[in-house]
Amino acid sequence: MFDLANEILATLRHNKLRTALTGFAVSWGIFLLIVLLSVSRGLVNGMESMFSQRDTETVSIRGGFAQKAFKGLKEDRRVSLRDSDLPVLTSQNANVVGEVIAQVSNDSLQVTSPNDYLTGGYKGVYPSELRNSGLDMTAGRFINQNDINSKRRVAVINEESAKTLFGKENPIGQLVKISDLSFTVVGTYKQAWRRVVYIPYSTARAMSGGSDIVNNITVKLKNVTTIVESEAAEKGFRSTLGRQHSFSDDDNGALWIWNRFSDYMRTSTAMGAIGMAVWVIGLLTMLSGIVGVSNIMFVSVRERTHEIGVRRAIGAKPRIILRQIILESVAITTLFGYIGIVLGVLVSQGIATLVGDGGERPIIKDPTVDISIAIQVTVVLIIAGALAGLFPAMKSLKIKPVEALRDE
Q: Is the distance from CB of 189 to CB of 136 less than 8 angstroms?
């Protein structure tokens, strides 16, 4: 083993410039591979973090404006969704609908406390809105089913809004007024861009003055596993509501539909493609270095023709020669490859420090290289080194001892 190590070091010293340039190519390829893998991992982590905070198997529907005339009705007419649409959507799409809920809001009212007030009104929701909107509760609780059943006057507010209304006081249990009605604050949530005051849907409906118009309908999907099935379900919802509100199935302006499940599946597919592309780019970049290693080994075999002939003449078996050439190639590739790994890990750690935790909706989160990637890259290095040395090793076996001994 020591003799083999000395021979490898001798090969490196004998071709210093050529080895350095080839080693740089290997290191650069591995460095890029590690950095690209860490960034792609950060993108995947960011996507998973974003989607993990909310239900992805949902379809949100809002009313729009019918752009086409239909059955004697003129174009550009308003389509308003109603409470009566919920049971119809459920019954006519029972095979793909798990739950149908609605939202109702009033944006013109103020929410007041003895200290200050908020503009923007309220939104009446069901308990599942916590997951639908990806809210992060910081104190207390969200709206629950008992609040819905009893039409309780309770409210959930943003923690920044709580500071506006109550200063440094604990907002939980405090009273706010909405439309001259007192509501008890039961919870606060954290979200940088959302300042909505949530109240129970049943309470908001009772405050709507007899109107049955809803702002948004959210359908929880079931038995849907592919984009094709999700889009078919979306088409079914559009058709059902088209019959309810008299607009054509192909009138895309009549409804605004956000199919979260399809978005999630497409994003997951894109992340998988990015991961594959990263490996391809990294391996192609590293290929130039591997070719260089192979060339070094060809030169090494040519320069050591006499030595190989002597060893063959005194009884060295072909597999011994083969093993030596391949191990030399693996050693060169692994040595410079690990230099690239170390530099790549340092850069990925630097990127992780720069992006931090990514905030509430991180695009890149924790872009670091874990042990599984290190193992994968190590396997790639070993295989690449073995392949780089295989062809020179095969050539060395074709050298006949008599010819090699004559070769000076």
A: yes
Element (H, E) at 158: strand 154-158
Q: What is the pLDDT of residue 314?
A: 73
> Rounded CA gap, 195 and 190, in Å?
9
Contact 102, 155 (CB under 8 A): no
Judge contact between 143 and 154, C-beta under 8 A.
yes
Residue 151 has pLDDT above 70, yes or no: yes
Q: How far apart are CA 50 and CA 364, in angstroms?
A: 10
Q: Calculate the alpha carbon distances from 145 to 126, 127, 128, 169, 240 in Å.
A: 8, 7, 10, 28, 28
Two tokens at 373? 């990637």
What local confidence, expressed as pLDDT, does residue 216 receive?
Answer: 92
Cβ atoms < 10 Å from Cβ of 320: 11
Do the bridges between strand 122-125 and strand 198-200 make them parallel or antiparallel, or are there none, so unpaired?
parallel
The helix/strand/coil state of 31 is: helix
Which amino acid appears at position 204 of this protein?
A: A
Strand partners, 255: 63
Tokens of 347: 């850069």
> What is the Cα–Cα distance from 22 to 293, expressed in whole angstroms?
6
pLDDT tens across 50-91, in order? 665 567 889 999 999 998 888 888 888 999 999 999 999 999
**Are 197 and 111 contacting, i.e. CB atoms less than 8 angstroms apart?**
yes
What residue type is assigned to position 70 of the chain? F
Burial degree of 120 (CB within 10 A; 0-12, 13-18, 19+): middle
Tell me the average pLDDT across 362-378.
Answer: 71
- Please report the pLDDT score of residue 5 as a whole number: 66
Mean pLDDT computed over 252-262: 91
Q: Are 231 and 240 in contact (CB under 8 A)?
A: no
pTM score, whole prediction: 0.68
CA distances from 274 to 25, 337, 374 (A): 23, 23, 19
Helix (H, G, I), strand (E, B) or coil at 40: helix
